[in-house]
Design brief:
It contains two helices and eight strands; from the N terminus they run αβαβββββββ. It is α+β, with helices and mostly antiparallel strands and 195 residues long. The protein has two domains: 2-59, no CATH class; 66-195, 3 Solenoid (Pectate Lyase C-like), CATH 2.160.20.80. It has a two-stranded antiparallel sheet. Strands 3-4 form a two-stranded antiparallel ribbon. Strands 5-6 form a two-stranded antiparallel ribbon. The longest helix has 24 residues, at 2-25. The protein starts with a helix and ends with a strand.
Length: 195
């Protein structure tokens, strides 16, 4: 019985030493070394990935890489009351960016922003805060505006062809001259008035 206990103790000691040695050989954030990347690192995550962690690139320590919210898209600073008149923001993705770790995604805060005549065609602005934004004459062709707050936003003369406004808040928004064609409205109905 004693021999069996000694053999088991010896095996446990060897395994403990092997685990300690392999862990010590990996670079860590504390040592200042860059951890080895596992999987493909992307420049953004979808909302599903940000919420569930699914598909999130991780480092050797097993923690998710942080994907920062973009400060600028072209010359346009993404912030409240920004002045981006005429900015080219085609295909910009402003939904589902990660603030840190597995925290909920951070949405763009463009409340009061001047986006007059900006080109936001094909952009993703799901859940963005755009209350009071000036989107007069903006190109919003195929733009994803689902669950976006557009309370008192100025959308006069904006082109909303094929835009998706499902569940968005458009209360008191200015819509004179806006183009609606294959546009999905907040309650899911399709608006073809401008086709």
């Amino acid at each position: 019985m004693r021999k069996l206990a000694i053999v088991v103790l010896g095996v446990v000691s060897v395994l403990a030493f092997a685990c300690t040695s392999s862990a010590a050989s990996e670079p860590t954030a504390e040592s200042g070394a860059t951890p080895t990347q596992v999987g493909k690192v992307t420049d953004h995550l979808t909302i599903k990935e940000a919420v569930t962690g699914e598909g999130t690139p991780v480092n050797a320590a097993g923690t998710p890489n942080v994907v920062p919210f973009p400060e600028y898209i072209g010359d346009c600073k993404i912030e409240r009351n920004t002045n981006c008149e005429g900015a080219d923001m085609r295909n910009a993705d402003l939904a589902g960016y990660r603030a840190q770790g597995f925290a909920p995604p951070v949405q763009a805060d463009l409340r009061g922003a001047n986006l007059m005549n900006a080109d936001l065609s094909g952009a993703t602005l799901a859940k963005a805060k755009m209350d009071g934004a000036n989107l007069r004459g903006a190109k919003l062709v195929g733009t994803n505006l689902t669950e976006t707050t557009l309370y008192k936003a100025d959308l006069r003369d904006a082109d909303l062809t094929r835009a998706n406004l499902t569940f968005s808040d458009m209360e008191d928004a200015l819509l004179d001259g806006a183009i609606f064609c294959e546009t999905i409205m907040p309650k899911g109905e399709v608006n073809n008035e401008g086709c």
